[in-house]
Amino acid sequence: MAGKGSLRLEVGQIDVWLTSLSSVCGNLQRAYLQLLSAPELAKWHRFVAPDAQLQYLVSRALIRTTLSGYADVPEHAWQFETNPYGRPYVSQPDSLRDIHFNLSNTTGLVVCAVTKGFDIGIDVENFTRDLDTDGLAPTVFAPVELADVLLQGTPGDRRDRFFSYWTLKEAYMKARGMGLSLPLDAFWFDLGGPSPLLHVTDRCPDAPERWRFRQYAPTAEHKMAVAVAAPRDTEPSIQLRWVTPMSASGAGVA
What we know:
The chain is 30% helix and 30% strand. It is globular. With 254 residues, it is α+β, with helices and mostly antiparallel strands. Strand 11 (237-243) and strand 12 form a beta hairpin. It has six helices and twelve strands. The chain has helices at residues 26-33, 38-46, 50-70, 133-140, 143-151, 155-176, and strands spanning 13-20, 79-82, 88-92, 99-106, 109-116, 120-126, 187-190, 197-200, 211-219, 222-229, 237-243, 251-253.
């Protein structure tokens, strides 16, 4: 990644930073631990599963180093708070609160979306993990989405469609900053057009036209979705950037 404060973040620009966990060696993990705040370090210690512990560590290093790429602020100096539903935001430096970000992690991959002034949500999922998607679908999808999933002819096709919908729903809930407090069957997506379209009921009041959604397959094992609230007739510019924080290899643009 470039030096502190060397990156520019214009209104309407969305940078999505991706880190493959396979690129993070033991020396980097030790360096990442030095960046964590006391509460973050305590939370890291509470993880029992090594994979979950690594995902959390890399996600914290990724957001801290990424933000310092846009502002001349030491990585350890960023402070974060959460809204009543748990969504984190920049609390210090106070002058940089207009930088919005969202994180997601799964087996093998950590991602972070950064923008200025827009509500943003991102979700990434490893679709090869052991999960009974056929059994779970009726509990997490609206009737229209469930019907579309069930129409898919093979288990593999149903699994693929499941994660297409689920990443979108997660990204939207995170962008709203309300998480699972939104009823999962109170909004749904139409995947029939060039980009996903949102529909809502009165149990999920919103203006669907203000949202833009994009879907990606960053690796052969992952699906990812980005949700951003933007003014009407505005198309945000989204760029994917691969990076290993604090690595000499730097970052690449997808």
